[in-house]
UniProtKB/TrEMBL annotation:
<dbReference type="GO" id="GO:0004190">
    <property type="term" value="F:aspartic-type endopeptidase activity"/>
</dbReference>
<dbReference type="Pfam" id="PF01478">
    <property type="entry name" value="Peptidase_A24"/>
</dbReference>
<feature type="transmembrane region" description="Helical">
    <location>
        <begin position="91"/>
        <end position="114"/>
    </location>
</feature>
<keyword id="KW-1133">Transmembrane helix</keyword>
<dbReference type="InterPro" id="IPR000045">
    <property type="entry name" value="Prepilin_IV_endopep_pep"/>
</dbReference>
<protein>
    <submittedName>
        <fullName>Peptidase A24</fullName>
    </submittedName>
</protein>
<feature type="transmembrane region" description="Helical">
    <location>
        <begin position="26"/>
        <end position="44"/>
    </location>
</feature>
<comment type="similarity">
    <text>Belongs to the peptidase A24 family.</text>
</comment>
<feature type="domain" description="Prepilin type IV endopeptidase peptidase">
    <location>
        <begin position="10"/>
        <end position="109"/>
    </location>
</feature>
<keyword id="KW-0472">Membrane</keyword>
<feature type="transmembrane region" description="Helical">
    <location>
        <begin position="150"/>
        <end position="168"/>
    </location>
</feature>
<keyword id="KW-0812">Transmembrane</keyword>
<dbReference type="InterPro" id="IPR050882">
    <property type="entry name" value="Prepilin_peptidase/N-MTase"/>
</dbReference>
<dbReference type="GO" id="GO:0005886">
    <property type="term" value="C:plasma membrane"/>
</dbReference>
<feature type="transmembrane region" description="Helical">
    <location>
        <begin position="51"/>
        <end position="71"/>
    </location>
</feature>
<dbReference type="GO" id="GO:0006465">
    <property type="term" value="P:signal peptide processing"/>
</dbReference>
Length: 169
């Protein structure tokens, strides 16, 4: 990935960060142009090879986040935005951003759990979930918590992850 791909993708991430923090949504008017611009820029710079680079990156961002969305972990806007990140930066960079984002999200989540003083309740719920993987006497819903799920804007984890991967890539 070239430095210009990082700087070209950054304005889309900044807009997504603002809207996600303010509304907990990432609108299509941010993610759609991010995907399109990534394909156009990579195609202009590398021809068909650049388009294939973008396609592989978009798939690498879209598919894992789609699975996370289906599990209820992220919103649909995050899925489309990661396709845009992939279109700009390619598959290898995007996969690393996903992994770093999950690590940052875990840290943020634990800070929120500690702040809300729910750590023992959450750990008990995780323990029950793990027990369910080893023994499920009948088809039951493996709901981790009876309380409201822990929610925060995923972009709080994505921005530092994006920068960290850029600095180490």
């Amino acid at each position: 990935m070239n430095d210009w791909a990082f700087w070209g993708c950054l304005p889309f991430l900044a807009a997504a960060f603002l809207t996600d923090v303010l509304t907990m949504k990432i609108p299509n008017w941010i993610s759609g142009p991010a995907v399109l611009a990534g394909f156009v820029i990579q195609g202009a710079g590398g021809g068909w090879k650049g388009v294939m680079f973008s396609a592989a990156g978009a798939a690498a961002g879209f598919l894992p986040l789609l699975l996370m969305h289906m599990a209820g972990a992220v919103g649909a806007g995050d899925v489309k935005l990661f396709a845009g990140i992939g279109a700009w930066t390619g598959a290898a960079f995007t996969v690393q951003v996903i992994l770093f984002s999950l690590l940052f999200a875990a840290v943020i989540g634990w800070f929120l759990v500690l702040k809300r003083r729910e750590s023992f309740q959450r750990l008990r719920g995780i323990w029950r979930l793990l027990q369910g993987f080893f023994y499920v006497p009948r088809w039951v819903s493996l709901k981790v918590m009876d309380s409201e799920p822990l929610r925060f804007p995923f972009m709080l984890a994505v921005i530092p992850a994006f920068v960290a991967v850029f600095l180490t890539f």
